[in-house]
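Section 5: illustrative case.
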């Protein structure tokens, strides 16, 4: 689920961000990843 977002225009063009921590067995536990999703309209949670 994406939480944080920025608007490219007031009514359309939102870019959502999701931080995903590294897996527990990762050799670099401080290195998670950022996932971005681009939505034309507002994201509807159903």
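Designed sequence:
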């Amino acid at each position: 689920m994406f939480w944080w977002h920025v608007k490219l225009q007031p009514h359309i063009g939102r870019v959502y961000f999701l931080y995903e921590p590294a897996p527990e067995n990762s050799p670099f536990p401080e290195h998670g990843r950022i996932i971005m999703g681009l939505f034309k309209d507002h994201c509807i949670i159903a």
